[in-house]
Amino acid sequence: MLLAVVVPVLLFVLVAGMGPLLSVLVPVLSLGIMIVALELGLRTQTRPLFSIVEPYGECRMVADERGAVSAGERASFTAEWPVHSGHLETPRLFVLFVLFGGERSAGVAVLPERDAQDPADVERLRGILGRNIKRL
Questions:
Q1: CA-to-CA dists, residue 128 to 1, 40, 54, 87, 108, angstroms
Q2: Burial of 113 (0-12, 13-18, 19+ CB in 10 A)
């Protein structure tokens, strides 16, 4: 991430007085470098997370008025709504935050909206989450 900022700044400083073509080319190249660095950074951060959950196999989650139940091929987990600290909704995901005895031991559940069997299921989940945990 440091390179995504330092390299473009150094390039700009080196070619600032070298003509109009380079004045246009450097910001474009800098943007490209920053995009690639950010993408590589995100992949580097998410790879260890996938290695943690991959052994559990495919997982399904069911939410009702009591809480959320996640059942996988090798493990299952039930979390009642009082242990959730809140939720976020993005255009494609619901993200639930779970606290397991304090801020230092937290978990996240990600529910893609595309996996809903019916568009009404997304509205139903939105209603359940709205009644039971705060929106962050």
A1: 39, 36, 28, 11, 17
A2: middle
pLDDT tens digits for range 66-76: 999 888 888 88
Distance CA 126, CA 135 (A): 10
d(CA 4, CA 50): 25
The candidate with the shortest Cα–Cα distance to 65, out of 125, 134, 135, 136, is 125
Q: What is the mean pLDDT of the chain?
A: 80
Cα within 13 Å of Cα(126), Cβ side? 12
- In angstroms, the CA 30 to CA 28 distance is 5
Predicted confidence at residue 16, as pLDDT, reads 64
